[in-house]
Amino acid sequence: MPRDRFDPALSGGTKRSRCPPPRPPSFMTTIDPTAFSTALLAWYDVHHRTLPWRVSPRERAAGLRADPYRVWLSEIMLQQTTVAAVKAYFEKFTLRWPRVEDLAAAPDTAVLAEWAGLGYYARARNLHACARMVAGEYSGRFPETAAALKALPGIGDYTSAAIAAIAFDEPAAVVDGNVERVTSRLEAIEAPLPGAKPLIRAVVEQLTPTERPGDFAQAMMDLGATICTPTKPACVLCPVRPFCTASRAGEAERYPVKQKKKAVPERRGAAFVAVRGDGAVFLRRRPGTGMLGGMSEPPTTSWSARSDGALGAAAAPFPAEWRRVGEIEHGFTHFRLVLEVWRADGEQRPGIEGWWSQPQEIAGEALPTVMRKVLKAAKIVAPAPRNSQSTETRKTAR
């Protein structure tokens, strides 16, 4: 029978208050933690995913331990990003910067250029700041507890717990989206996310073993990614099906319960692609803070939710023979962006800070995905870069 142990709507969690939010009631799972972890780890030993940042159960049994640098790097990259998308970026980063000291010594522009396309660019800035702190203040050694790891830039509750468990065997409760789904089904939790998060964490804390906590965390993630999937979960193949309330009721797909999504607002703006006679494109660097901070872009207007702002050639950053060549759309977490794309060809003199990027250099620029869409709409074809160093020695042009 589904269990509604914690409902924020009943506890006042949906109302604004100056008081701290109420803590969930004390809760004890009816699942036997030892039996559960034994079944899950036996499955993981055979069916674990092979990932470039992981140490396999067999390697671990032979005495090999996870490299904290590689665990940290992968966990930062995996925030809001799929495993499939992260693999290639992880390989690039570790090939170019195999140690945290190497990453710490890299120029900001190089890190942003390698990160381009992965999204959520504040992660790249925090990643670099964290590497510098670990290399400088911690002599290249990551702190070994979740509490100490949380003091580093860009590391929150989930990431600190994951690093502590996987790299240092701390029995920390590691809760990502996969684990939330698995746990919601195990207990048939009726409270909707995100309000159910405290209850889910309480369950995971009780199930996490003191032996092999890192493998347990990765096993829960793998279970959610391969068996306990959002739709059509393969319950008949699940190693922990005997413990699962939702599966026994034949209602696994009902969970986790989620709040209805709000309509996504729209913002609009314009981007201006200036192309010189030799094919070079004029780019500039966005401010170091804020959305897409420090990334490269063709000049753009501000992004406004209002429709009466100045767009079109009148909003161009400098005089030129601008012509409208298209429009692109891009989805961010909290809004949808629509950009008019304008192009001008000739020997312009921008008169603003920026640089001319040659065709063979554009692919190596720190361009976020939305700006690559802009260039594509402007019919800019960027070949693969000859090397990935091009943005490190960029000169300013006016």
TrEMBL record:
InterPro entries: A/G_AdeGlyc_MutY (IPR005760), DNA_glycosylase (IPR011257), Endonuclease3_FeS-loop_motif (IPR003651), Endouclease-III_FeS-bd_BS (IPR004035), HhH-GPD_domain (IPR003265), HhH_base_excis_C (IPR023170), MIG/MutY (IPR044298), MutY_C (IPR029119)
Matches recorded under CDD domains: ENDO3c (cd00056), NUDIX_DNA_Glycosylase_C-MutY (cd03431)
Domain of life: Bacteria
Coiled-coil intervals, chain numbering: none
Keywords: 4Fe-4S, DNA damage, DNA repair, Glycosidase, Hydrolase, Iron, Iron-sulfur, Metal-binding
Cofactor binding remark: Binds 1 [4Fe-4S] cluster.
Obligatory cofactor(s): [4Fe-4S] cluster
A Pfam family per the record: NUDIX_4
Region of interest called Disordered, as start-end residue ranges on this chain: 1-25
GO MF, any single term: adenine/guanine mispair binding
E.C. number(s) listed in UniProt: 3.2.2.31
Keyword set includes Iron: yes
Catalyzed reaction equations: Hydrolyzes free adenine bases from 7,8-dihydro-8-oxoguanine:adenine mismatched double-stranded DNA, leaving an apurinic site
GO biological process: base-excision repair; mismatch repair
Domain (HhH-GPD): residue spans on this chain: 77-226
Family designation: Belongs to the Nth/MutY family.
Function: Adenine glycosylase active on G-A mispairs. MutY also corrects error-prone DNA synthesis past GO lesions which are due to the oxidatively damaged form of guanine: 7,8-dihydro-8-oxoguanine (8-oxo-dGTP).
Name of the protein in its database record: Adenine DNA glycosylase
Organism annotation: Jiella endophytica
